[in-house]
Write a structure and sequence with these properties.
The complex is a heterotrimer.
Chain A lengths: L3 E12 L2 E7 L3 E6 L11 E5 L2 E5 L2 H13 L33
Chain B lengths: L9 H14 L4 E5 L2 H9 L2 H4 L4 E5 L4 H4 L2 H11 L4 E5 L13 H6 L3 E4 L3 H10 L4 E8 L4 H14 L4 E8 L1 H10 L7 E5 H7 L4 H8 L3 E4 L3 H17 L4 E3 L11 H10 E8 L3 E10 L8 H4 L15 H5 L23 H4 L4 H7 L21
Parallel strand pairs in B: 1-2, 1-7, 3-4, 3-5, 5-6, 7-8, 8-9
Antiparallel strand pairs in B: 6-11, 10-11
Chain C lengths: L16 H4 L5 H4 L27 H15 L11 E6 L2 E10 L5 E2 L2 E2 H14 L3 E13 L4 H18 L2 E10 L7 E11 L15 E4 L5 H8 L7 E2 L9 H10 L5 E3 L5 H13 L2 E5 L7 H10 L13 E4 L4 H9 L8 E7 L6 E4 L5 E3 L13
Parallel strand pairs in C: 5-6, 11-14
Antiparallel strand pairs in C: 1-2, 2-7, 3-4, 5-7, 8-12, 8-13, 10-12, 11-13, 14-15
Helix pairs in contact in C: 4-5, 7-10
The chains are: A mainly beta, B alpha/beta, C alpha+beta.
Chain lengths: 104, 378, 379
């Protein structure tokens, strides 16, 4: 299930215990549930999938990705691609995959 | 559209392709496990613009396609009941079960409704207290938080008429099953970006290490896919095998912890049969016992389900990546989007429908090769 | 009450027991695949589906396999097009009919009445004919508010006036609650084809320019935005409008215009595919030239729809010899309905009967016809 698109949070309101937002996708707006992104504020960009915001778009990273791609040059230095999020390159063997049953 | 258009830029796509061609010195086989990525690769002809030795094997990344036949037949049996409003994501409506499909049931008078979000199904239940409302909760991990929240919301509202028919599947066990197969040719994976936005990528690190396969978390736009492929090939060419994140703007290593918490509060990991592949242990979600009152399988006695697949449909091998639609004798002849024999042809993200929509392997008189990107391979 | 089930003699008749057994337990009614004559899980063949009305591949199949053959004796000219031309006393009379079943009957940018007038006026215009007169028939569901009927009818009158056509005859029927979706409207129209004009899909010739009169996707998205279960906010209104004025301008600039087609249900893709098939030519589009308004794109991305499959109501495609393209574009842009006219592609000798598009990313993809009903994707 992959169709998730980025949109801008333009309104926030509560529907009972659920925090809902109106998200603008560049001219079309639809509500989305913000329950999984409690820190999102007006103006933030989020990725929405089946009516739920599942990830906040990191605008810095977005810009960085494009900048690096623009700098790609066959004659130049090999540029580092992707995020430099901490332990990305080093798999830690001590971290077993989280098992659903164990985190009840 | 912001944060979409920039990743469809033609000159940048050309640059990425140039770089891929420059650094590739050996043949490689990569697999993407996400229907959305398959769709973009085929529709944009990206896979055919890669160096000739680089093969994209399309993995079982379409949750519609891998929903087990038993679950579809159960859904059909439940939807056929006159007291039921059956709600579902649009993609499931045309998937053939053993004998029919949801859209046909609708034509015969069943109350089948498409919903955009599982919360809509909950609203329908609240508005129709005298009817049973069932929601077909399918998907990968990406959709589990939404489906889980629907159950929690129904619980909060004290709804007695809302149940879910669960058929979730998980990506890492499928990857391992593929890697364990004796016929496995996959040397690197593109991991599904939105699955990882929810779950993070910690589960993939042991897989990369154990099987020595590079895994690159990748987005869905053309530039994302090209960059992800480039990163994977760089690893392959240098003998590295780690998890990397191409989709940096949307994915963090730990994923979305709030979403995971709700998913694990409502669901439990269990065995799941994948249509066309078979049983993969610990590869699906089931409702936890404390939410049994929301389980459609507990509420409705659907009798014994006998499933049967069309004998000419090789969806299983296609979903495992061992064959392509071009290897299928029914493809384009007996099996087409208008009269699909199997799920990969009917789902908008299935491999067969992607190939068919792109006209691959279909005999067209006078046709010239269509898959020429601005950058040809030298 | 148990249901006796016999193996169906008709291989396409899947047992209906599961759906229609009143009060029966589902266990007794569930279809047993072993009893089916045909082992293939063939989807619904015995009943009409909503998709058969969507203007895509299913609609074409219904016409080709069921309606066309059944009507063969009475329709010697072949499958029925949107409009027909009959010779009457040395003149060419265009004759067309269309039914309108849109729901809701009032939507952003218009209503079913306006749609009914413009739709038929446009079908006549696509034959190169100036509309003369319309008939108007109502099938009204019991319970429809009288005010709604009055408003829709006033809308019909306004639309007719704008198009310069008169409503000369009509009919009204009322059916029981539930038998019609509020209001169904049928209009039929006659018009005269200008001398020297001979348009038809089969006339598309290699090298011709494919011209689109303006932005696409507006009507379909406007309707979807108010459809129950999907509702979203979008600053998009239906583009319904009469196109006879625009056609007159095109014909004046290029009497030899080859094809005129308004891409309604099934969208631009379906209309172009029909033309490609009828002419046995290929059509190549360039994605960067397609006028798709931002909100339409956003709504399509959100729902997983292809803008090329979304319905339009006030747009046309004109296919003209390349040498006339500049003059036709100028003539179209001089008229409000064609202010945003743009050339979007060419008719080619390659890949006959297929429509392809050079994408923004630089690849070439096939533009296929919609299969059935346009279902929003989430996958």
């Amino acid at each position: 299930m992959c169709l998730g698109i980025p949109g801008k949070v333009v309104e926030i309101r509560d529907e009972g215990p659920l925090r809902m937002a109106l998200v603008d996708y560049g001219g079309a707006r639809k509500e989305a549930c913000l329950a999984y992104l409690p820190d999102v504020v007006l103006g933030d960009y989020v990725i929405v999938h089946v009516g739920f915001a599942i990830s906040q778009l990191d605008e810095e990273e977005a810009t960085k990705t494009l900048e690096i791609l623009r700098m790609l040059d066959p004659e130049g230095m090999e540029l580092e691609l992707g995020s430099t999020d901490g332990e990305a390159a080093a798999p830690s063997s001590s971290a077993a995959p989280p098992v659903a049953g164990a985190s009840a | 559209m912001k944060y979409i258009d920039e990743y469809r830029d033609a000159p940048l796509a050309g640059k990425l392709l140039d770089e891929i061609h420059r650094i590739t010195t050996k043949p490689w086989a990569l697999m993407e496990v996400c229907g959305g990525q398959t769709h973009t690769l085929v529709k944009q002809g990206i896979d055919e613009a890669l160096p000739s030795g680089v093969r994209m094997i399309h993995g079982p990344g379409c949750p519609v396609c891998v929903t087990p036949l038993e679950q579809i037949d159960k859904a059909l049996a439940i939807a056929a009941r006159p007291d039921v409003i059956f709600t579902s994501y649009g993609d499931m409506l045309r998937v053939p079960g053993s004998t029919t499909d949801l859209l046909s049931l609708k034509a015969r008078g069943a109350d089948v409704r498409i919903v955009y979000s599982p919360l809509d199904a909950v609203r329908i239940a609240a508005a129709n207290p005298d009817r049973q409302v069932v929601f077909f909760a399918i998907g990968f991990e990406t959709t589990a938080p939404a489906n889980a929240m629907a159950v929690r919301q129904a619980a909060r509202l004290g709804l007695a008429n809302f149940t879910v028919l669960v058929s979730h599947v998980l990506v890492p066990p499928a990857m391992c099953a593929i890697l364990e197969s004796p016929t496995c040719q996959v040397q690197a994976f593109l991991a599904a970006g939105h699955v990882c936005a929810v779950m993070g990528w910690t589960e993939y690190e042991p897989i990369a290490e154990r099987y020595h396969v590079p895994i690159v978390v990748t987005g869905f736009e053309p530039l994302d896919l090209l960059e992800g492929i480039l990163m994977a090939i760089r690893q392959l060419e240098s003998g590295r095998a780690v998890v990397e994140n191409q989709y940096a703007r949307a994915v963090k290593r730990e994923g979305n912890l709030e979403a995971q918490e709700t998913v694990f509060r409502v669901f439990d990991v269990g065995d799941r049969k994948w249509r066309g592949i078979g049983m993969i242990p610990a590869s699906g979600y089931h409702l936890r016992p404390e939410f049994e009152r929301f389980d459609a399988e507990a509420r409705f006695d659907v009798g014994t389900i006998h499933t049967s697949e069309h004998p000419a449909c090789i969806a299983g091998q296609i979903l495992q990546g061992t064959k392509t639609p071009l290897d299928c004798t029914a493809y384009g002849v007996l099996c087409s989007p208008q009269k699909p024999l199997g799920a990969p042809m009917v789902s908008s993200e299935g491999v067969c429908s992607a190939y068919h929509a792109a006209g691959r392997g279909l005999a067209i008189p006078g046709a010239v090769p269509l898959y020429e990107l601005t950058r040809r391979e030298s | 009450m148990s249901t006796e089930r016999r193996p169906s003699a008709d291989p396409f008749g899947a047992p209906a027991a599961a759906a229609t057994t009143p009060g029966g337990e589902i266990g007794a009614g569930a279809p047993d695949p072993a009893n089916l004559v045909c082992p293939a899980p063939i989807p619904e063949r015995a009943r009409v589906l909503l998709g058969h009305g969507s203007g895509g591949q299913l609609s074409a199949a219904l016409m080709r396999d069921v309606i066309g053959p059944a009507l063969a004796e009475a329709a010697p000219g072949g499958p029925l097009n949107d409009a027909a031309v009959v010779e009457v006393a040395g003149q060419r009379l265009a004759f067309t009919t269309d039914s309108f079943v849109v729901s809701p009957i009032e939507f952003p940018g218009g209503d079913i009445g306006e749609l009914a007038v413009n739709g038929t006026v446009n079908d006549l215009a696509m034959m190169g004919a100036q509309p003369l007169a319309l008939s108007l028939a109502y099938v009204i569901e019991e319970g429809l508010p009288i005010e709604d009927l009055r408003r829709v009818t006033e809308s019909v009158a306004r639309a007719a006036g704008r198009a310069g056509v008169r409503v000369v005859t009509g009919d009204t029927k009322v059916v029981g609650r539930g038998a019609a979706d509020g209001l169904f409207v049928n209009t039929a129209g006659i018009g005269l084809v200008a001398p020297g004009v001979s348009v038809g899909a089969e006339r598309a010739a290699v090298g011709d320019a494919v011209i689109l009169s303006g932005p696409i996707g507006l009507h379909g998205i406007a309707i979807m935005s108010v459809r129950e279960g999907l509702d979203f906010e979008v600053e998009v209104v239906s583009d319904t409008q009469p196109l006879n004025g625009l056609v007159a301008a095109i014909v004046a600039a290029c009497p030899g215009v080859h094809v005129l087609r308004d891409p309604t249900r099934g969208g631009l893709a379906s209309a172009l595919n029909e033309i490609a098939a009828a002419s046995a030519r290929g059509i190549e589009l360039r994605e960067e030239t397609l006028p798709i308004p931002g909100p339409v794109r956003a709504a399509c991305e959100m729902l997983g729809l292809d803008p090329l499959h979304v319905a339009n109501e006030g747009k046309l495609v004109a296919i003209v010899p390349a040498a006339d393209a500049a003059a036709v574009l100028a003539a179209m842009r001089a008229v409000p309905e064609g202010a945003d006219a743009v050339e979007i592609g060419r008719v080619v000798a390659d890949h006959p009967s297929m429509v392809t598009m050079r994408t923004i990313v630089g690849s070439q993809r096939i533009v296929d016809m919609m299969v059935g009903e346009q279902l929003p994707r989430i996958c």
